[in-house]
Amino acid sequence: MAHRLEVPSQADMVQPIEERVAAKLKRSLLDISQQPTQPRTHLLVQASKTVGRHNFHRRLIRRTARNQSRVIRKSEVWLLLALFSIAAGGCGTGTGISSGPVPQQSQPAGVSPTPAASVAGSNEAKAASQLPRGGRAIFPEFRVVAFYGEAGVPNMGILGQGTPERQGALLAKRAALFTPFGRPVMPAFELIATVAQASPGASGCYCGRMDDETVRRYLDMARRLHGLLILDIQPGRSRFLPEAKRYQRFLEQPDVELAMDSEWRMGAQEVPGATIGHVNAAEINAVSEYLAGIVKRKQLPQKFLVVHQFAGYMVEDKRTVAKRAGLAITFHIDGFGGRALKVKTYRQLSDRDGHFFNGIKLFFDQDINMFSAREVMGLRPPPDLITYQ
């Protein structure tokens, strides 16, 4: 059953204060327990990609994450607020921690109540056997429209240019533009979970990893939109499979997907931002086997595995990429530029034999005269996944 996309109002985005306090308390305490002893500092890489060309220019963007002491101080504030709320009788339970959903009548049509703070171990998630908008197949039943980016980093894409709630409202409006074109539309957040960086960092992988608390925030909002969360992996000198396994607790959910950002998969001597990366079919097959195993073991609906590319050489031995039961493998054409170049690249790299599904990325800033929804749907074959950055 298709759900009508509606934009939640600001008032509808706000939970009752006692539930927000209780959820924040629970999450903040979990965040402290998982915080590393050293400060997390990421050097983020912003790509300026030129479609199908070897000459390219990169800009590096430096962002310093919150250190441990700041996280603890923030958590202590929430602890005091929660204790005050409990003392005032605002939480309405003996524990002061609300595990139930927001009453349905407080939500606009098409937007679910915010789930409980913990994703892993959620009875609701384990029992779910269908997709957020019904059925067990994403493609070709639905068309997915996504916002891409990293939390809190505006230069990395539209998803990071505001809170999950604000960007969710914008996504709902954008996704609604694709409803006249035959398939029901599924909105999605594509969140960069492992981000490539230009320095090795403590792990030596030239990458930084998103904390679980941030991933939960975006998953919660995606669920309120009856949409999906796509975890994007930029592995640096690490590899896709071990990075994907770091997020297994989320991938075991029925509404969390995976993306392999091949541009940022480096060789042993390569540095993100100095080289365009690539991936081979064997590595894609290893990841798809792992993801298909989760689908089978957990009896989940179909998942899709996105492979990003904007040039043919970025995916080696593409003809030997294996199809997997329970997976919709999607090759996503990422390059920006003028219309003629984007159309040419899409025609060259898209799958026309029906073996795999196709995606295209649109750039608000870098595309020259960005395609409208109607123009995107005029591409042949029409894309199954449309992502905005």
Would you kindly provide a written description of the structure presented here, covering whatever features stand out?
This protein has 389 residues and is of the alpha/beta class. It has two domains: 11-87, no CATH class; 117-388, TIM Barrel (Alpha-Beta Barrel), CATH 3.20.20. The chain is 29% helix and 20% strand. It has ten helices and 13 strands. It has helices at 17-34, 68-87, 123-127, 164-176, 212-224, 240-245, 248-251, 281-298, 339-349, 373-376; strands at 41-48, 57-64, 143-149, 185-196, 207-209, 228-233, 256-261, 279-280, 303-309, 315-316, 327-333, 357-362, 385-388. The strands form three sheets. The protein has an eight-stranded parallel barrel with strand order 3-4-6-7-9-11-12-13, surrounded by four helices. Helix 1 (17-34) runs antiparallel to helix 2 (68-87). The protein is globular, with a radius of gyration of 21 Å. It starts with 16 loop residues before the first helix and ends with a strand. Mean pLDDT is 76; it is low at 1-126.
